């Protein structure tokens, strides 16, 4: 008999080899998958709390520094790899003294940043600074790669079957049904002819338009209806001449009221400060924009929408920089500015007088009353019709604000007794007089 060896022994050896190879492969894979940043944690990040450091950074440093871009001061990500902690403690506590001492590194940083002095933070402890350094030492999170088969925000490919394909399929089905009905009709006619069945022809009838023309009552009623309907639509068309409600022009720089007045809750009168003291609300100067955007050169990733990407918003900020002549790399003005040709949205006739300060400051009317929910507008538009009737209706239903308005106290008391009310409307106070709004 021929020997074939010990199968169980060979099987054990084979399984043992496979187990060792699998273990070695998994270990190697795990080592390769470990990010380099995890194995190279900076020494400065140890001992500090990056979560607390982020809070301290936002409250003390974010006005002049960014993590990954130069602002008023240099970018701070990885700053612990450029300077030792003892030097950083001295610099944060009092950079001016460090510069006066002639420290080479301090003088270099001062000169590289346009000799802008850094605010001293003596109240920050070394533990606080350690936490800030721990936060700035974190590796920048890369944007996750899109998963195949999922829709990407702002892209035209939303996945699945498009509406065009569905509509095309429905149109094809309808066409097939029409063809089938036509074929069935031909088959039935042939069958009837083969069996000697005669298909009855249609009896001629009077066309409906001839029957309608012979009925004089229907002709009269229809004519009156058409005349009245035509007059109604002509009147409505003529009354809309010069009314630009929902006018929504495209501006040279895309400005989102939704982001500024909505998400960031910036008060309307911060930018339109003239509305409080002047007849006109005015167009904010670009210097007002630069109060914030001097340090905000790009928007957050969460700001992007399906319609407008982060790159789009960043491009609009760059348009602002070009117009005002700001070089974000050197954090300085170039002196080369360009005018921004804004498109006016609200425009009253020349014979109409409207004073913003009278309504905003004296009457205490909110901006949204006339301009709509601007905090929700991505593109600013004309909310109200701004017609004479619209203004009169507002005067008829709006009570006069008397708190802190002693100018109207005496006349308000006399007129309230005359009309028998506690609160007078603007109309009862003379708000319907022609001279109030017309020169």
Automatic annotation (TrEMBL):
Keyword Heme: yes
Region forming the signal peptide: 1-30
Keyword annotations from UniProtKB, A to Z: Electron transport, Heme, Iron, Membrane, Metal-binding, Signal, Transmembrane, Transmembrane helix, Transport
Entry GO MF terms: electron transfer activity; heme binding; metal ion binding
Residues annotated as transmembrane: 165-184, 217-238
SUPFAM superfamilies to which the protein is assigned, alphabetical: Cytochrome c, Multiheme cytochromes
Top-level taxon of origin: Bacteria
InterPro entries hit by this protein: Cyt_c-like_dom (IPR009056), Cyt_c-like_dom_sf (IPR036909), Cyt_c_III_dom (IPR020942), Multihaem_cyt_sf (IPR036280)
Ranges for domain Cytochrome c: 48-140
PANTHER family noted in UniProt: CYTOCHROME C7-LIKE DOMAIN-CONTAINING PROTEIN, LIPOPROTEIN CYTOCHROME C
Protein name: Quinol:cytochrome c oxidoreductase pentaheme cytochrome subunit
